[in-house]
# Entry
Amino acid sequence: MEEALNRRPPRPPVGAVVDRDGPVVRTHYGTHGEVSHGPLPEWDLEALVSRQIEAFAQRHEPVLWPVYGDARLAEALLAAGFAAEPERTVLSCPIGTDPTTLPVVGHDWAGHRRVAELAAKTGPHRRPFSEFLADSAYLDQSAAVVLDGDRAAWLEQSGEFMVVGGVTDPRFAATLVAHDWRLARPHRGVRFLLAEATGDLRDAFEAAGMRAVTTVTRYHLTPPGEPARTRPVRQLFSEPEYDDIWSRFEERFAFRPDTQEFPGITEPAHSATWRLGALDDPRLDGIVHKGLRASVKPGEELYWLDWQHAGYRFDPARVDGAGPRWPGAVIPNGDYYSYLTGDLRLGTFGHPWEATICVFGDLLTRIDAELTAALGRPIRRSEA
# Structure
């Protein structure tokens, strides 16, 4: 049970960095940080807490530290300056047997907006819906967003537990408890439902058959310095923002996917196109990444587009190094890849079938010579 409560995803959430300090796992989101852990040592607990505070302070990240019924750790956190939220009850029960299909939102962004509206009016939730979306959990088959009129819930699988991230109406509790989550293929290993609640929601879960197993208190600490307002990387798929950047790209460059007719776009003025040879990925990536960083304005974000797949919006100044890895790839691998500024003034276009990369705008000025040295003379140039 303790492992399920503290379990972190097998891979870092999108835009996050995961560090370990003995039994402690720190997840750095750029905007804030969270702590999870297994059993803690009986000695030097204060020193362990102090190291975590320092690690988050170096990134100017407010810290969230959930404590599950551990009075000794709670005392150490309070002594270190943490503030406590009200205690919540952790409840669990075997999953239900009701095979009724639940109204799952899937990739319907209008549905997600409605859930976000309901979530903003309720709570506090175990996991804010905004964080659920920022982690791109809605793209993960192990997660589920359920919307039934004015009742909504979001859940994620953790091992044999289906964990309720939030529920907006106590009347929805009985439905979640009764549902057989094993009916969905990704959830075949689920055996138990896990939730956190207080007040009417706790009463509703208990009335539906859940039982209290422990308590949780979330402790917060805000270090000096201004935290970032956005994560370094945001994954995009079905939301209007991604549709908009794709629509503008297709219109601006007359994008025409084809396996035999080239080029795939109307290559803009001040662009050059190189044939991709046997150059290894890190070398080409390094040239393009350096050029993109130098070409954008301070604080300006980039998009990486992958045709008919999820893409990213990210801050090139906050990836790699101590941040999350640079998203996407330069060399196309079976699909069309592009790095673009939001105003489409500069970027790249990788064509998988022609095996070329087109570079345009100020980015070309910065990396023209390096790409020519690495790939040879361009096969096309547009100077007009």
